[in-house]
Amino acid sequence: MNKTKIGGILLVAGLMLTGCGTGQSSEANKVMSLTPSYAELFTTVPGLTKAADAVVVGTVTASVDAPPVDGLPFTNALVEVEEWVKGGAEDNQVTIHQTGGTLDGVAFLDEDNPLLEVGERGIFYLQKVPAGYVTLSGPTGRMTIAEGKALPLPASTLTDIGTFKDVSAVIAETERLSTE
Protein backbone atom coordinates (compact mmCIF):
# COMPACT_ATOMS: atom_id res chain seq x y z
CA MET A 1 0.00 0.00 0.00
CA ASN A 2 1.49 3.40 -0.87
CA LYS A 3 1.87 6.38 1.50
CA THR A 4 -0.98 8.34 -0.14
CA LYS A 5 -3.53 5.57 0.51
CA ILE A 6 -2.36 5.08 4.10
CA GLY A 7 -2.50 8.84 4.75
CA GLY A 8 -6.01 9.04 3.25
CA ILE A 9 -7.27 6.15 5.40
CA LEU A 10 -5.86 7.76 8.58
CA LEU A 11 -7.38 11.15 7.66
CA VAL A 12 -10.84 9.63 7.13
CA ALA A 13 -10.58 7.64 10.37
CA GLY A 14 -9.51 10.78 12.22
CA LEU A 15 -12.46 12.75 10.83
CA MET A 16 -14.87 9.97 11.79
CA LEU A 17 -13.56 9.93 15.38
CA THR A 18 -13.73 13.72 15.63
CA GLY A 19 -17.48 13.58 14.97
CA CYS A 20 -18.08 11.06 17.73
CA GLY A 21 -19.11 12.17 21.21
CA THR A 22 -20.94 11.14 24.31
CA GLY A 23 -23.77 13.61 23.91
CA GLN A 24 -22.79 15.10 27.28
CA SER A 25 -21.66 18.63 27.93
CA SER A 26 -18.02 19.41 27.32
CA GLU A 27 -17.48 19.09 31.09
CA ALA A 28 -18.09 15.34 31.01
CA ASN A 29 -15.86 13.13 28.94
CA LYS A 30 -16.89 9.84 30.59
CA VAL A 31 -20.29 8.43 31.51
CA MET A 32 -21.02 6.27 34.54
CA SER A 33 -24.41 4.54 34.62
CA LEU A 34 -26.17 4.46 37.99
CA THR A 35 -28.63 1.79 39.09
CA PRO A 36 -29.98 2.81 42.50
CA SER A 37 -32.27 0.62 44.57
CA TYR A 38 -35.18 1.98 46.58
CA ALA A 39 -36.22 1.06 50.11
CA GLU A 40 -39.86 0.76 49.10
CA LEU A 41 -41.62 0.19 45.79
CA PHE A 42 -45.13 1.45 45.15
CA THR A 43 -47.55 -0.13 42.69
CA THR A 44 -50.58 2.12 43.24
CA VAL A 45 -51.34 5.83 43.43
CA PRO A 46 -53.04 5.32 46.85
CA GLY A 47 -49.90 3.67 48.26
CA LEU A 48 -47.67 6.39 46.82
CA THR A 49 -49.96 9.16 48.14
CA LYS A 50 -50.17 7.75 51.66
CA ALA A 51 -46.36 7.45 51.89
CA ALA A 52 -45.66 10.93 50.51
CA ASP A 53 -44.86 13.83 52.81
CA ALA A 54 -45.95 16.18 50.03
CA VAL A 55 -47.42 16.03 46.54
CA VAL A 56 -47.05 19.00 44.22
CA VAL A 57 -47.89 19.96 40.68
CA GLY A 58 -45.19 22.18 39.27
CA THR A 59 -42.63 23.10 36.64
CA VAL A 60 -38.86 22.81 36.87
CA THR A 61 -37.33 26.30 36.68
CA ALA A 62 -33.65 25.53 37.34
CA SER A 63 -31.21 22.67 37.82
CA VAL A 64 -28.06 23.21 39.89
CA ASP A 65 -25.20 21.07 41.12
CA ALA A 66 -25.43 20.01 44.76
CA PRO A 67 -22.45 19.00 46.90
CA PRO A 68 -21.25 15.44 46.24
CA VAL A 69 -21.63 12.80 48.95
CA ASP A 70 -19.07 10.01 49.22
CA GLY A 71 -17.82 10.73 45.70
CA LEU A 72 -21.29 10.68 44.15
CA PRO A 73 -22.70 13.83 42.53
CA PHE A 74 -26.17 15.19 43.21
CA THR A 75 -28.33 17.74 41.41
CA ASN A 76 -31.03 20.00 42.83
CA ALA A 77 -34.01 20.79 40.63
CA LEU A 78 -35.96 23.88 41.64
CA VAL A 79 -39.67 23.42 41.00
CA GLU A 80 -42.17 26.28 40.92
CA VAL A 81 -45.27 24.93 42.66
CA GLU A 82 -48.61 25.47 40.92
CA GLU A 83 -50.55 23.43 43.45
CA TRP A 84 -49.87 21.73 46.78
CA VAL A 85 -51.99 18.58 46.51
CA LYS A 86 -50.75 17.18 49.84
CA GLY A 87 -48.66 18.64 52.64
CA GLY A 88 -49.53 22.17 51.72
CA ALA A 89 -47.01 24.84 52.47
CA GLU A 90 -46.79 28.52 51.76
CA ASP A 91 -43.68 28.06 49.68
CA ASN A 92 -44.16 28.48 45.97
CA GLN A 93 -40.98 26.53 45.26
CA VAL A 94 -39.53 23.16 46.29
CA THR A 95 -36.09 21.68 45.79
CA ILE A 96 -36.00 18.11 44.49
CA HIS A 97 -32.66 16.47 45.29
CA GLN A 98 -31.58 13.85 42.73
CA THR A 99 -28.73 11.41 42.48
CA GLY A 100 -26.56 12.15 39.45
CA GLY A 101 -24.76 14.93 37.70
CA THR A 102 -21.18 15.63 36.65
CA LEU A 103 -18.18 15.26 38.92
CA ASP A 104 -14.53 15.52 37.89
CA GLY A 105 -15.37 15.18 34.20
CA VAL A 106 -17.57 12.10 34.68
CA ALA A 107 -21.33 12.23 34.07
CA PHE A 108 -23.23 10.00 36.50
CA LEU A 109 -26.62 9.11 34.97
CA ASP A 110 -29.60 7.05 36.09
CA GLU A 111 -31.40 6.09 32.88
CA ASP A 112 -34.49 4.97 34.83
CA ASN A 113 -34.79 8.28 36.68
CA PRO A 114 -33.12 10.95 34.54
CA LEU A 115 -32.34 14.36 35.97
CA LEU A 116 -35.28 16.75 35.85
CA GLU A 117 -35.03 19.25 33.02
CA VAL A 118 -35.88 22.94 33.04
CA GLY A 119 -39.40 23.34 31.65
CA GLU A 120 -40.54 19.85 32.67
CA ARG A 121 -44.02 19.98 34.21
CA GLY A 122 -45.22 17.19 36.43
CA ILE A 123 -46.82 15.73 39.51
CA PHE A 124 -44.21 14.96 42.15
CA TYR A 125 -44.78 12.59 45.11
CA LEU A 126 -42.15 13.70 47.61
CA GLN A 127 -40.37 12.62 50.75
CA LYS A 128 -38.77 15.29 52.97
CA VAL A 129 -34.96 15.07 53.34
CA PRO A 130 -32.42 17.57 54.73
CA ALA A 131 -31.60 18.84 51.20
CA GLY A 132 -35.29 19.47 50.37
CA TYR A 133 -37.28 16.59 48.90
CA VAL A 134 -36.69 13.43 46.88
CA THR A 135 -39.23 11.69 44.67
CA LEU A 136 -40.60 8.59 46.36
CA SER A 137 -39.20 5.40 44.88
CA GLY A 138 -37.20 7.34 42.25
CA PRO A 139 -38.97 7.24 38.88
CA THR A 140 -42.27 6.08 40.42
CA GLY A 141 -42.68 9.31 42.39
CA ARG A 142 -42.85 11.56 39.36
CA MET A 143 -45.21 11.84 36.41
CA THR A 144 -44.79 14.16 33.47
CA ILE A 145 -47.84 16.21 32.52
CA ALA A 146 -48.35 16.33 28.77
CA GLU A 147 -51.48 16.87 26.70
CA GLY A 148 -53.68 16.64 29.79
CA LYS A 149 -52.29 13.25 30.84
CA ALA A 150 -50.14 12.17 33.77
CA LEU A 151 -47.42 10.06 32.18
CA PRO A 152 -45.28 7.85 34.43
CA LEU A 153 -41.65 7.23 33.54
CA PRO A 154 -41.02 3.89 31.79
CA ALA A 155 -39.33 2.48 34.93
CA SER A 156 -42.27 3.39 37.18
CA THR A 157 -43.68 0.50 39.21
CA LEU A 158 -47.24 1.92 39.23
CA THR A 159 -49.75 -0.57 37.87
CA ASP A 160 -52.94 1.47 38.29
CA ILE A 161 -52.05 4.70 36.46
CA GLY A 162 -53.90 3.54 33.34
CA THR A 163 -57.17 3.64 35.27
CA PHE A 164 -57.08 7.46 35.39
CA LYS A 165 -58.44 9.18 32.30
CA ASP A 166 -56.42 12.37 32.71
CA VAL A 167 -54.19 14.41 35.01
CA SER A 168 -57.15 15.99 36.83
CA ALA A 169 -58.37 12.50 37.82
CA VAL A 170 -54.93 11.65 39.27
CA ILE A 171 -54.88 14.94 41.20
CA ALA A 172 -58.47 14.46 42.44
CA GLU A 173 -57.68 10.93 43.68
CA THR A 174 -54.48 12.16 45.35
CA GLU A 175 -56.41 14.99 47.07
CA ARG A 176 -59.13 12.56 48.22
CA LEU A 177 -56.56 10.15 49.65
CA SER A 178 -54.69 12.99 51.37
CA THR A 179 -57.72 13.81 53.51
CA GLU A 180 -58.31 10.23 54.71
UniProtKB/TrEMBL annotation:
This is Lipoprotein. It comes from the Bacteria.
